[in-house]
Design goal:
Blueprint: E1 2-6, H1 8-12, H2 16-31, E2 36-40, E3 56-59, H3 64-68, H4 70-76, H5 79-84, E4 89-92, E5 107-112, H6 116-119, H7 126-142, E6 145-148, H8 151-161, E7 168-170, H9 185-195, E8 201-205, H10 214-223, E9 229-233, H11 238-250, E10 256-259, H12 267-273, E11 276-279, H13 288-296, E12 300-303, H14 308-312, E13 317-319, H15 324-336, H16 338-351, H17 357-369
Parallel strand pairs: 1-2, 1-4, 2-3, 4-5, 5-6, 6-7, 8-9, 8-11, 9-10, 11-12, 12-13
Helix pairs in contact: 2-17, 9-12, 10-11, 10-15, 13-16
Length: 372
């Protein structure tokens, strides 16, 4: 079988959607090597060091117009190349399919991660919201099958956009296998020095924006005089400045450490050196830091409701993300209740097994089989 992929994120995105795309393609290549995998990339250069396997081929735009305007090729003119390469199934890995996918005669699969721009419109420019809504909804309507990365995303597609529920499959994502490994002390010390990390800290992972709600943890530490630092790894936004201003006013600016240029391979060591992960986000499509934290063997504080119990099972401390008292109590549990922490870590390692590579690969391929 010949399976094609929209490979833009594989070669040009270092974080979330890129990690998902690379992971999915690598797992399918490893567990189902009898197929041929075609990666449709808009440009020949790459920002990511991705190793193309022997059963993979990379396809680029050929005609001058598409080389000059690769986004035009990717979104509106890919069907000819899909036909030319006799693709049986084409998989849009990051919320969209080519608008002309129906012309290709290939069966189509679409992975939908979330529709955060609907729930939190203030985080997006009006034009971006308009384009995302138009492209992603149309892609959902055109797709033969949709993979939702969580039940929450599936329910959003059904309830918000009235997408037919019978064509949506939930296939959970995994995390990078490097989070399964225990980092040695030499590596930890190197990473600690590289980022000038404090001796004890709570960890936050993800873009430092309002939706991620890091300020609630900072407020809990300030208002309850909890002696712990916070290390936040993620892209800086104006919300980060708001957190810094609050911390400055409360006299705890020295307890905050923001890392905006983190090398992804250093992240497992940072997880493992932390006292625990604080991830009281208001909304996520899946919440992959929870999975990374469970595999790294650290306790996790996350939000009650939404997708979070789906991702974290019985292995997290769940709080109301708006409640500073609950946040402070949860932080104190992580810092001072060794028995509770051990139970959380043990449960996390066990629960995280349902998201391992074999399960993810089998879930993806089972969707393809429905189309053959």
């Amino acid at each position: 079988m010949k399976i094609g992929f929209d490979a833009k994120r594989i070669f040009f995105n270092n974080s979330g959607l890129g990690n998902y795309s690379r992971g999915a393609v690598n797992l399918l290549s490893e567990y189902f090597p009898e197929n041929e995998y075609f990666l449709f990339s808009p440009k020949k250069e790459s920002r990511v060091n991705f190793l193309v396997q022997p059963n993979m081929s990379v396809i680029y735009p050929e005609i001058f117009l598409h080389k000059k305007f690769p986004s035009l090729w990717r979104s509106y003119a890919l069907s000819n190349d899909i036909v030319k390469n006799s693709i049986d199934i084409f998989h849009g890995l990051s919320n969209e399919l080519p608008s002309d996918i129906k012309k290709s005669r290939a069966r189509s699969v679409l992975t939908m991660h979330d529709i955060i721009f609907i729930h939190f419109p203030e985080l997006y420019k009006p034009l971006d919201r308009y384009l995302y809504t138009k492209k992603y909804r149309k892609s959902c309507e055109n797709a033969d099958r949709i993979i939702a990365i969580s039940e929450q995303t599936r329910n959003d597609l059904v309830n918000v956009w009235q997408i037919a529920p019978e064509k949506i499959d939930v296939v959970y994502q995994g995390c990078d296998p490097m989070f399964y490994e225990i980092a040695d002390e030499e590596n930890k010390n190197t990473v600690r020095k590289k980022y000038n990390l404090p001796g004890k800290f709570l960890l936050s992972v993800g873009t430092i924006e309002k939706r991620k709600n890091l300020l609630s943890a900072v407020k809990a530490i300030a208002e309850h005089k909890i002696d712990i630092d916070v290390v936040a790894c993620g892209r800086h936004t104006p919300y980060a400045d708001k957190i810094l201003e609050y911390a400055e006013n409360k006299g705890i600016r020295n307890k905050l450490h923001f890392i905006h240029n983190l090398k992804f391979s250093d992240l497992p060591s940072i997880y493992q050196m932390s006292e625990g992960l604080v991830y009281a986000s208001f909304y996520e499509g899946f919440g992959i830091p929870i999975l990374e934290g469970m595999n790294s063997g650290v306790p996790i504080i996350t939000s009650r409701g939404g997708v979070f119990p789906e991702t974290g099972g019985d292995a997290c401390i769940y709080i109301d993300p708006h409640n500073i008292e609950e946040m402070a109590s949860a932080i104190n549990t992580i810092l001072f209740d060794k028995k509770a922490v051990k139970e959380l870590i043990d449960k996390g390692r066990n629960y995280s097994l349902k998201f391992r590579d074999k399960e993810v690969a089998s879930g993806l391929y089972s969707v393809y089989r429905k189309l053959i």
